[in-house]
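Schema walkthrough. Field components (list of strings):
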Amino acid sequence: MNTPDITLVNISRRAFLQQFALSGLVLAAGLPVPSFGDETQPDSPRAYGADAMPHGWVDNPLIFVAIASDNTVTIICHRSEMGQGVRTSLPMVVADELDANWWHVKVKQAPGDEPTFGNQDTDGSRSLRHFFQPMRRVGAAARQMLIQAAAEQWQVPAAELSTELHQVVHTASRRRASYGELAERAAKLPIPERDTLQLKKPSAFRYIGQGNVGVYDAGHIVQGQAGYGIDVRLDGQLYAVVARPKVLGAKVRGYHAEAALKVPGVLKVVELPSSPLPADHHPLGGVAVIARNTWAAIQGRKKLNIDWELGEHADYDSDAYRAQLATAVRKPGKVVRSVGDAQTALNEATQTVSADYYVPHLAQAPMEPPAATAQIQHGQCQVYTCTQAPQLARERVAKWLKLPIDQVTLHVTLLGGGFGRKSMPDYVVEAALLSKAMQGRPVKVTWTREDDIQHAYYHAVSQDRLEGALNNQGQVTAWRHRSAAPSISATFAQGQTQLMAVELGMGVVNVPFVIPNIQIENPEAVSHTRIGWFRSVANIPHAFAVQSFIAELAAASGRDHKACLLELIGPPRQIDPRALNDQWNHGESPERYPLDTGRLRKVIDTVTEQAGWGRTLPNGHGLGLAAHYSFVTYVAVVIEVIVDDQGKLTLPRVDIAVDCGPQVNPERIRAQLEGACIMALTSTLYGEISFKNGAVQQSNFHDYPLLGIDAAPREIRVHSVPCTDYDAPLGGVGEPGVPPIAPALCNAIFAATGKRIRNLPIGQQLLPSDD
Amino acid sequence: MIKLTINGEPKTLTLPDDTPLLWALRDELGLTGTKFGCGISACGVCTVHVEGQAVRACVTPIGKLQGQHVTTIEAISQNSVGAKVQSAWVALNVPQCGYCQSGQIMSATLLLQQNPQPSDADIDQAMRANLCRCGTYPRIRAAIKQAAKTLQEDV
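Field assembly_structure (string):
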């Protein structure tokens, strides 16, 4: 017979609020708005990491750990699994400090409930960064409670006890008890205070840093048994697709429900209201077709023949917009950082170099498109979905259904990729509204690939203009960077035309270069579509422009690119990000997370050494270098490219050096860097979302292609800079691998061919010209 | 009415003939291991075996499958090659999000059945239409080679 698990205890909201009231922190009230990080009160002490999130963090092992009498340890993962390995890595941290046997560990996914579990927004490359230490404390506290339980049972001092892989041991009396035997007693003990916890010494880690734990869900995945959002099946479930407005803000004027209803299997046609702009996380509105299965719903949707009232964004044309951005960066914009006098230095320089770089809109296109299932019974709504933002999704469903939030349960499935798209819960609200329209019956809304590509929250199109002055030794004496792009903030507030601190802190203002005259400007840009998060966000265009331009400066003065890059970075030193006018610093403490140029230099030295920088290459081969600091992690990349006389690219090898501080799961870190490289290569080679008459022109993988195995690098080597100090701050891992790829590849192409790519995607630009 | 055999079990489908196999599997039969990715045979996540051939379930109408044998990811472990492919996938930690891996494993299994010692070019040819957004390709290649090695050791 099974004895019950340790009860999962809910800390009361009130106790939690009291705790924070004492520390003088103000909690955000109401619906969360995206935290842009620059609204800090200068005089109030500021928290960082898990403690600083809207719902804070409470150390409580009873919330995260349950131990059954059969020794099964169930560990809650409160962050969304989308391929980064968080369901392996976070529970592994708890298991290590608990001294648990991984074979007895089961991972259970938390529902959306931030007051209980702490922050669940799985974005910003911060799951381990924010929760490594909290999860260590969870494991250590549970272990101390088990020791205390044994001490009471055996009537010996706790100090005489230790643990050995799932057992508490009293060496003097040779007594042992399994965790399963002690769990019930342990659960009744008081929770140890944070400052009494004894964390393991890193030399005692069983799992952390070892790379010896396999992907937790791999067994289910390879058998087709892993449960994604799109796979949810409830009794009596119906299937829906929605015809959404192709132009942002468009409204339904009329449609042919009868024709859709004639399709076999179609049960109902439901109009969904459109929301006034800004787009926010609101569903787009449109007309839903609900059917016996997804295929019937798709067939019914084709018959709707909707008449749209198009609205203010019907003229959005990305070619015309691109020309506007190109003009904008030719004129002064809002100054966001200024050192010395760049204008005078440019005017008086012996040599100047300038270049314009363009990156188009991109769609995240996770292989699992957005999907959600909702059911409403007795005034309670159950939602099952693949979301990066469980609490936000829950709050939005409650708001749209006009239910108290306690009446909404948000179950988080596996995500078949997220990349930022699934941080936006528009599709989750759709499922809730459709269940309501069907008197609470379970309804699953599935986005087709066309829906996903044409209704994403797009990566911002951007234009970056760089101007540099060189003296007669080839040293850079002035640097002017104008960066224009529609801001993510415009998705949440009408009329926003400037980049936020978050976006500027992604490689525009926080360039650690030793240049006497620096001017960085942000010309205005109006947004005409939903701009959102795309893996590594604004770092993509900024790294592309900055790291390409440094190679261009080196070429202009006939110097080695690596030597120029290191000269610009200057000597090893720690820079306070505020000295670079970076007010965001990835939401991290500027004291704990300074920008360390020594670490940046180290990844450049490591990757160039490993890749054989400077070696003689055959004709048509080139090595390209780029380095970028993002999400408080340092990455440098060397790509080897072969360009044949037909302009065809082959990528024999990519070397990547990463310094993300102490490493929890080196195996998944390698996987993330490999994957980031390939995703970024797709964007660099093919990625482009364009608009005509307000609508996206691409629709599926035939015109928004992804890199296949045949075009991927044959070899990706990841070189980690070791760090054995587990008290040192962690860096992010999921995103920082993306930004250096585009400039490294384009620098390699330049080295191979002399052709400089300044506009992405590369597309057909390397084809032989007719003349 | 379509009668066919799925993973060794006889099944009857009462759906219009033009219904793609994908939606019959997922929505009617509850076999959700076969994934939806594009609906136009452009990504390979819905790859299944029909009479021993790789087929994209999203563009295969059930009307063409009368009396045929379909194998999906849920039963590929019963195939000795498929089981080795799955083992290699787990051993090398191939999956990231895992969503495309059903299709990858179905394609890799067929490749190794037809060509137990594939070259890199053979792998490119057989796997190029199975897309992965997470970028697990280097590990897919390594896992196919590892599975090929274990197959050779069995001979």
